């Protein structure tokens, strides 16, 4: 086990100064305004009302108290005044109640709209990145942090609104105290400062810790994904690894969470001292106002006024600090979000390929994976003519799949070129090449949320679904029989977890059935270039023989097959044998067998040679 908690933590990222802070808030507001301008305006108005209204209510409550005291002392007009103030206070309460109901709805609309826009943008960017970035750890780390921000975007917006309200409330409360006594206002202001400072320090430490734990959290997440997938449970139980993984997960979680809690624990005494200071300020203010009332320097209602306003200033300041420290972390992740959204995308530009090329040439291709030291492809040259059937063979790790990805334009070669009828692939609009390509890779997709028919249709969604072609593709991939046996045939969902709108449950598929479905999808695409990267590893030999028999009998399609099975390989016009990132041998099956070289040695056991004279039986 590689315990990430044992790694030395990385240095914390630089602190946010006030300017980027303001810029970040501005950025959040801009995006939100674009998504829903009316809602942003309502939110600003709502924040101001939320700050002002409690103070106005307190003011009338204080007036009511004073009027009551006067009425009690025998002033008949004061009683009427008190009733009027009570009615005004009730009216304000009614208005506040109605306003909060509307405001709650607006907040939900806004959260939804803004969250949807930001989330969609993030997905789009992630899915359109240059392909090499998916192998790059720094990109994935940044994505993780940026995703954290985008997931909480609407919450950030709510917090910004809350901060506006709280800030306005504190300022107004201090202003309201200034009207009564400048030094009471000053005492309250001073009492607020230590608490603000402490909360900020705590949140900074927690944030720095969070950023050092990216790897351990990812490890934990991957373990959790493994643990909850039913497909994995069989192996995990059979290997008896469930307990071990649970234990590893708990250790990673505890190391992360306990450290956070430890920070909080360390701050408790300091926080208590800061709280005591605040209570002290409140008591001082109250004693002062009591003295003033007794000396008849202030009306009776002023006690209520001071008590309410001071307590409001202190509690709102505390909430402000909590909001600021929680948004602190979010805004730091906003920087990551912005950086991530600046990553260039792979799509766009370039000359459009007018028709399927008649020849594809790989010219002296070299490639090294991002972050890797070893060159995986070391100068590969080969050419594929229209209608030709090519097989690429070689040991595990020889570079076959990498070569396919370069041919498909997913990876850019380090040196060398992919040429389509002499045109450089890197200068072309890549999607115009993909239209002529159908690639089925080893780790093909299982669309578990869809029906069998749609799993095939997803091979080409650019035109409306054609059920006749779906059925033909299924026949060619030998998938018709098992699909026909599903309770609802092609309209059957292919996962036990799914159910259609009529309540018909889906059925799980075997590994080979999934593979046939993926191959049907590849055929349905109807592309002139078919690339199959170990397409039949889970398909039984007879079915494979029939599928490839049909496929290779057709000269309409150019076929490039990566395979370890001789039955498939020997049908190809040209076989390229890769070894250590280079073409070690090439030729027809017969030529390579006669050569008695590497190809021969690799497939010797499958050749079924007559041991007497070394010829095929
Ligand atoms: N995403 C990746 N990041 C870094 N290195 C990789 C990545 N994928 C493959 N490699 C490395 O590149 C080399 C070639 O891998 P590739 O998948 O092309 O081999 P292959 O011939 O298709 O193997 P197999 O027969 O096992 O499918 C391997 O040594 C592998 O370690």
UniProtKB/TrEMBL annotation:
Entry GO MF terms: ATP binding
Keywords from the named record: ATP-binding, Membrane, Nucleotide-binding, Transmembrane, Transmembrane helix
Subcellular location, principal: membrane
Source organism, top-level taxon: Bacteria
Domain ABC transporter: 360-605
Location within or outside the cell: Cell membrane
Residues passing through the membrane, by range: 40-62, 82-102
Cited PROSITE patterns: ABC_TM1F, ABC_TRANSPORTER_1, ABC_TRANSPORTER_2
InterPro entries: AAA+_ATPase, ABC1_TM_dom, ABC1_TM_sf, ABC_transporter-like_ATP-bd, ABC_transporter-like_CS, P-loop_NTPase, Type_1_exporter
Keyword ATP-binding: yes
Name of the protein in question: ABC transporter ATP-binding protein
């Amino acid at each position: 086990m590689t315990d990430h908690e044992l790694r030395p933590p990385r240095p914390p990222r630089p602190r946010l100064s006030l300017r980027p802070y303001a810029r970040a808030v501005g950025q959040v507001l801009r995006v939100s305004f674009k998504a829903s301008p009316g809602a942003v305006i309502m939110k600003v108005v709502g924040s101001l009302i939320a700050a002002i209204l409690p103070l106005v209510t307190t003011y009338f409550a204080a007036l009511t108290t004073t009027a009551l005291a006067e009425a009690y002392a025998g002033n008949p007009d004061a009683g009427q005044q008190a009733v009027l103030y009570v009615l005004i206070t009730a009216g304000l309460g009614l208005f506040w109640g109605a306003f909060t109901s509307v405001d709650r709805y607006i907040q939900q609309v806004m959260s939804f709209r803004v969250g949807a826009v930001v989330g969609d943008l993030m997905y789009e960017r992630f899915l359109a990145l240059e392909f090499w970035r998916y192998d790059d750890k720094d990109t994935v780390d940044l994505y993780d942090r940026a995703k954290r921000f985008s997931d909480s975007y609407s919450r950030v917006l709510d917090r910004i609104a809350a901060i506006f309200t709280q800030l306005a409330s504190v300022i107004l409360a201090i202003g309201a105290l200034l009207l009564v006594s400048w030094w009471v206002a000053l005492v309250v202001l001073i009492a607020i400062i230590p608490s603000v400072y402490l909360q900020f320090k705590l949140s900074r430490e927690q944030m720095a810790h969070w950023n050092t734990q990216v790897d351990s959290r990812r490890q934990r997440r991957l373990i959790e994904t493994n643990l909850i997938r039913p497909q994995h449970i069989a192996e995990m139980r059979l290997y008896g690894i469930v307990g071990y993984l649970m234990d590893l997960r708990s250790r990673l979680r505890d190391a992360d969470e306990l450290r956070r809690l430890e920070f909080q624990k360390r701050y408790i005494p300091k926080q208590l001292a800061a709280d005591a200071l605040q209570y002290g300020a409140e008591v001082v203010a109250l004693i002062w106002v009591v003295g003033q009332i007794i000396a008849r320097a202030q009306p009776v209602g002023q006690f209520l006024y001071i008590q309410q306003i001071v307590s409001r200033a202190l509690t709102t300041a505390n909430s402000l600090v909590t909001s600021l420290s929680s948004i602190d972390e979010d805004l730091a992740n906003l920087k990551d979000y912005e950086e991530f959204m600046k990553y260039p995308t792979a799509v766009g530009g370039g000359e459009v390929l007018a028709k399927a090329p008649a020849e594809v040439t790989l010219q002296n291709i070299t490639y090294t994976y991002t972050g890797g030291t070893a060159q995986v492809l070391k100068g590969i040259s080969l050419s594929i003519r229209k209608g030709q059937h090519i097989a690429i063979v070689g040991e595990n790790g020889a570079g076959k799949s990498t070569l396919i990805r370069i041919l498909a334009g997913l990876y850019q070669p380090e040196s060398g070129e992919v040429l389509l009828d002499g045109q450089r692939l890197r200068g072309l609009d890549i999607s115009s090449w993909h239209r002529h390509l159908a690639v089925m890779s080893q780790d093909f997709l299982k669309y578990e949320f869809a029906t069998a028919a749609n799993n095939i249709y997803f091979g080409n969604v650019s035109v409306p679904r054609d059920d006749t072609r779906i059925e033909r593709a299924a026949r060619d991939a030998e998938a018709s029989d098992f699909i026909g046996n599903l309770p609802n045939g092609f309209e059957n969902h292919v996962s036990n977890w799914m159910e259609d709108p009529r309540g018909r449950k889906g059925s799980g598929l075997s590994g080979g059935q999934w593979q046939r479905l993926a191959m049907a999808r590849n055929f349905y695409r109807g592309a002139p270039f078919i690339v199959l990267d170990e397409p039949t590893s889970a398909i039984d030999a007879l079915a494979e023989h029939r599928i490839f028999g049909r496929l290779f009998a057709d000269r309409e399609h150019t076929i490039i097959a990566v395979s370890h099975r001789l039955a498939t390989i020997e049908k190809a016009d040209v076989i390229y044998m890769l070894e250590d990132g280079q073409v070690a041998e090439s030729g027809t099956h017969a030529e390579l067998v006669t050569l008695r070289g590497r190809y021969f040695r690799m497939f010797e056991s499958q050749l079924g040679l007559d041991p007497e004279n070394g010829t095929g039986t």
